[in-house]
Amino acid sequence: MDPIFSPDxxxxxxxxxxxxxxxxxxxxxxxxxxxxxxxxxLLMGTVGMFDLRMMGVARGVSMHALHRLVPLGVAGYLMCxxxxxxxxxxAPAQYLYNPAIQTKILLMALAGINVAIFYLxxxxxxxxxxxxxxAPAPARIAAFISLTCWLGVITAGRLVTFFRPPEFWCxxxxxx
Amino acid sequence: xxxxxxxxxxTPLSIWMREDFYAYFIALIFHSIGMALLVGGGVLVSLRxxxxxxxxxxxxxxxxxxxxxxxxxxxxxSGLALLAAYPxxxxxxxxxxxxxxxxxxxxIILWRxxxxxxxxRDSGSQxxxxxxxxxxxxxxxxxxxxxxxxxxxxxxSVLMVS
Lengths: 176, 162
Fold this sequence. Notes:
The complex is a heterodimer.
Chain A: H1 7-17, H2 19-23, H3 28-54, H4 63-67, H5 70-90, H6 92-95, H7 99-121, H8 123-128, H9 137-158
Helix pairs in contact in A: 3-5, 3-9, 7-9
Chain B: H1 2-9, H2 12-19, H3 23-50, H4 65-85, H5 87-91, H6 94-123, H7 129-155
């Protein structure tokens, strides 16, 4: 028994606000998938490449200038978050207890903590560094963690259908 | 064509891709990562040509090309494996042709971009407005690659012929 989530209540909410009906039209699900993957590409093209630059790829590209593209990566993240939420609330029982989705959300949370630590402790030194300069070691580590997390998010996302129900994975559930 | 599809479906690679517990999903994962690196890098270069992050030296963006080519190689090889598994599913679907046309167009522009970056590095010349428009076209083509790639799953009418 799940003490936190109720798939039935989530689905009922999705029906009440119209997301369920929208996502069950013939065009909405494929459209959401397109937006979701393009969001990932935006994220990889901006945040991912900024990570690679901090790790030493394309030395000479100003990290300060490249960082100006990060808001587009945030837009990509939001595209993924909104469409991903639509997938989950439309078929909560398919997603909530799926180990791939749980891993994906865990990696996203880890990436979020990592980015918070980066902006608290390393970003100023990175953004102030010379055009062809190297990022400080903590920033390089943060970049490696970030890139690993996002590649893991893509991997886990692809594994969602691999673990489709009847797979049931719920570490927080109590015996019925 | 049906005979060709049937023959491909009976190859050991095709059978393994369909029947192995992990093979198809591993190919899907590599295809997604490869496409994300290729399209993501393509979007980045297009944005730079369109005037975003204008203070970043354009010629140094060539440093990202090896990452994109690695993504392209990963996407191509995994795509071949996926195609081997269900050749009729993809090759009877016009959307597959559209995806390839968009991919070819975007790659040709990227190739020209790589050469242009070389000339910018050599001569220090500025970007022309036509180059910026070409970058807009490239960005649209990268988007089309994603659109048609995702629509493949929803528009296929044939799975196998044998």
